[in-house]
Specification:
It is built from 17 helices and no strands. The protein is mainly α. The two termini are about 40 Å apart.
Amino acid sequence: MKKIISLMVINGEKHQNQYAILSVSSLKVLFVPWATKGLWAPIIEVWGGRNRWLFIALLALGISAYTGSHIALENVFGIGCMLFFLNAFSAVQDVAVDGIAIQMLPEEQLGLGNSIQVVMYKVGWFVGGAGFTYLMSILDWSMTLVVLALTYLLTAIMVTIVSAKDDESSEEETKETKNNGKDNDERHKELNHNDSQVNEILAILKDVVSTPGTLWLSIYVLLYKMGERGAINNMPLFLLDRGMTKNQLALWNGTLSQGLSILGSLHGGIVASKPLKIRDKLFSFSLYRFFSILLQFVLILMWNFNFFNEKDSLFTVYAVGVLSICSLSYSSGVISTVSFTLMMQTSRLCEKKTQASHYSLLASIEVAGKVLFAVIAGFIIDYAGIASSFAIFTVLAIFPIYILQHIPVDLAHIKTE
């Protein structure tokens, strides 16, 4: 969505101030569906089913994109509404896909499945952004959104075809679940007898918050990205201010660091697929991440105290800065995949109908942590300065390490059966 907003600015320069207001103020509103999906995820579980909601979400995304193709670029409110609906239905799609993944993936493939999801998300973000930019260069705004709408509709058709093939097996699974009364919770039996969908939704929410490990993981996913996001977003700006060219920064911070982030996500999938303690692996790579951010903080301090007076010393600043960014990107990729695997495994402690909602709650808290820090990060930089800000980022990177030291042992490993 940020890519779309930036391209709107490029293609509508006379409305640049309006789009600046949209990107700064309204962009945070676009994350509301993502930050609250844990609250409405039970609706998808109770009413309609995941496959149906996935189709509805893709269809709605196509309609939203096509509607946006008829909105003039100067209509800031209309563009904002389109972006909001794209985010809202993308969040619905995300809940449905996560629920399907939790049900489909066997225990030993959770790490691999999360690795594929994270890697393809990063590849999709890069390819999608580049593709959108290319289409904007050869087509106008309206036709680009029409192409986007057709892409969503074609995906919806593919989902329908795949879902039709799975209908028979799903029906058999449903019959087996209904017949196996011993495996169902007594509370859910009563809800089925009363046929009260509203009460069932409330029961799912209650089960979500009462699942062992939910509080620990909620605190962890709320905090585990804060220091990293602050450092990884602002270190490139520090290098740019020190004279590094935009082309150099695009190569090192764009191509190389993104590639290392993807490799880190793949490594995280391998780590999470082994019967090893997740806490130990998360702890190790969280330490690597901490030292990467600490290195950036020391580099900035040395610059502020004039350790780099000579022009030739700029090479050292650039080299250390790039090294820290690459190290941070790789460790971030590993941590993301392993953390999502731990989230999904903990969600499997819930009853089957509650698992997707539990995972959506944890994912919502993770997004909320990122959005919250994005709101305050600018104020920290403006009022505290670059050195003090990186001191704060370094301290924030310690919190996940402390939490991992105290997380219950039974949540710190991948269970193998």
